[in-house]
Specification:
mainly alpha, extended
Length: 51
Amino acid sequence: MPGSYFTHAYRQANVVAHTLARFACSSSSSLFWGLKPPACIVDVLSKEFTS
């Protein structure tokens, strides 16, 4: 991927992504989320928005 780069982010700085990745690894089916976030990250998102 020309012009792309990757950077490390600690789990504490990226809790939503970590939670989604953990959920995806434990799921055996394909999922799609439209306008509403998946239930597994609603609490995490609420905490991030209020802090």
